[in-house]
């Protein structure tokens, strides 16, 4: 604890964002380059080095937050990077994409703004790359055992890196043409520039991990063949089966799933196509769904210069402060948050009908109507109460030339045949069934991440990858020194 009075003398200061008018003209990250390091030391000083650091419990990775806060406050970047990477394979991912449940669990957050843990984490990760503190760590010897990891999202990459470093020969299979899963084609460039992903993949290649892109297991490679070729298989395909909106007019042209829309924008940034065939340019856009994916659609649409863009959230607008009765500290509270995309939409006034930034809260879609050509032109909605019951007299209509459905995901996509070919047992909610050791109903096959847990956060995905790696290592060798931060049935803190 470098400054015992830091939490009393230093106010919370976050990584500043670039001006809205500037950043919506490009696809670069929204933050001011180089503006974090000048403030991060004093922000780390605000950490109280609590006797019982609840931030550890709030973070499924068990990040050693007080330790690296203290090291950052003293400019000891080498030790800080070591302590951070001891629990997290990809801190530059979580430092940009995680909603920071650790900050909700910060003891300072009981009656003050929490320590900017997420910003400190990002600063350590970036500084470690700048100083050359993240060299490849190939194993000293090989075990002679082989593992196939299906899926290259955060779970698959974390599992593969841990197993490679333990000495196993690992091949990662990815059905897309590039690695990264939803981090590649689901997360917009303005939230995380893809060079962060590329350099981690290159680090893993240098360590010995093999990658097979454009290879859908179950279609391009038989699942049974994979099972016989490798000593163990890890299924980390994510939860990519999107939820539908079964209302009249859904069949109209111009209504797309978020994951049909977002990858095209990312492919423009990758240089694969000149412009997206599903663009918001000049259109009245309505996004159905109030979560992070909806916000990603919002920020993407704003950059494509729409006529208007509105986001519908079926939940009531949350308050600015934690409800201590319903969501007491240190649980992660549902409060009103202003993402970079919502800030942009608010300042640019993209949604004249919205009451808060671009969002209409407590709004449920009733139906769509279209023109004579079968293209959507309007969305009909109604306000709802806390039980999602329509409120009489609250119906309204929004112009809609493009509708984006961002309603979340129900489980792994079964279209490639992987699950059925292996004969895996499934949970009633659509996820892969597994036991306390991450093992599925098929010997030698393990499941981790959203494919088994269900839709969750990136920090949980990485924790799952690290934990399943320990389980696979134990299965192959009889014991394991790899860390297992969570169990398959662990859940975030709730009341």
What does this structure look like?
By secondary structure, the chain is of the alpha/beta class. It contains 19 helices and 15 strands. It has helices at residues 6-9, 20-23, 37-45, 54-58, 65-73, 77-85, 91-97, 101-104, 117-130, 154-165, 182-185, 195-207, 223-229, 258-270, 292-303, 340-348, 418-422, 450-453, 458-477, and strands at residues 146-150, 169-173, 210-212, 232-235, 241-242, 255-257, 284-288, 308-313, 359-361, 363-370, 376-383, 396-399, 402-405, 409-411, 445-447. The protein has a five-stranded parallel beta sheet, with helices on both faces. It has a five-stranded parallel beta sheet with strand order 6-13-7-8-9. Strands 10-11-12 form a three-stranded antiparallel beta sheet, with no helix packed on it. α6 (77-85) crosses α9 (117-130), α7 (91-97) packs antiparallel against α9 (117-130) and α10 (154-165) packs parallel to α19 (458-477). The longest helix has 20 residues, at 458-477. The relative contact order is 0.13. The model has no long low-confidence stretch (mean pLDDT 96).
